[in-house]
């Protein structure tokens, strides 16, 4: 017996809903990664020179760490990934942690709320960093992890000290967050 003209019902979502979900996820990824700065401006050779002194280097490091925070996080995760290529267990743990990084740090549209308290981006980054290092140390690749983190930290600090910060300006929200945390940085010439 056939029912012509009847509307079929199904417990499975329609392909249009799945495509909408995928499209929305792609949009969130693009907008979430928009917090990172363009790589071209990060590695602009015209903006690279040695600092004039210790305090100039410290000022540059503070400004560049605030401005290129998402780029540096991506760079550290890439260095960590490359160091774990020959440790499949550690690589699997890192892959799972990268999902946490993507959803909790890069893709959030709204501030993270935990037990009714708003958590800022810096706290989320520090928490995810501690979680990443802690869980990776349980995979018995300690020498690789510590070596890659030391390498990444040196690379980030060298770049932050050598990259001139006189043409970088944090947006108002980031500047307000920086001022409240005591890390006020003023661009140096």
From TrEMBL:
GO terms for cellular component: endoplasmic reticulum; Golgi apparatus; membrane. This is PRA1 family protein. It is a multi-pass membrane protein. The chain crosses the membrane at residues 67-85, 119-139. Keywords: Membrane, Transmembrane, Transmembrane helix, Transport. May be involved in both secretory and endocytic intracellular trafficking in the endosomal/prevacuolar compartments. The keyword DNA repair does not apply. GO terms for biological process: vesicle-mediated transport. Belongs to the PRA1 family. The keyword Transport applies. InterPro entries: Prenylated_rab_accept_PRA1 (IPR004895). Pfam families: PRA1. It is found in: Endomembrane system; Membrane.
């Amino acid at each position: 017996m056939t029912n012509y003209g009847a509307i079929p019902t199904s417990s499975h979502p329609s392909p249009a809903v799945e495509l909408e979900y995928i499209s929305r996820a792609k949009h969130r990824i693009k907008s979430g990664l928009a917090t990172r700065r363009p790589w071209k401006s990060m590695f602009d050779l015209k903006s690279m020179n040695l600092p004039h002194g210790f305090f100039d280097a410290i000022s540059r490091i503070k400004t560049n760490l605030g401005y290129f925070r998402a780029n540096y996080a991506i760079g550290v995760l890439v260095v960590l990934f490359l160091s774990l290529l020959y440790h499949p267990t550690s690589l699997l743990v890192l892959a799972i942690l990268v999902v946490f990084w993507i959803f909790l740090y890069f893709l959030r549209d709204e501030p993270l709320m935990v037990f009714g308290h708003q958590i800022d981006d810096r706290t989320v980054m520090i928490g995810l960093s501690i979680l990443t290092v802690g869980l990776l140390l349980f995979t018995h690749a300690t020498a690789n992890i510590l070596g890659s983190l030391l390498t990444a930290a040196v690379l980030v600090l060298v770049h932050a000290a050598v990259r001139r910060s006189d043409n970088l300006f944090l947006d108002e929200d980031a500047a307000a967050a920086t001022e409240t945390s005591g890390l006020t940085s003023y661009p140096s010439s």
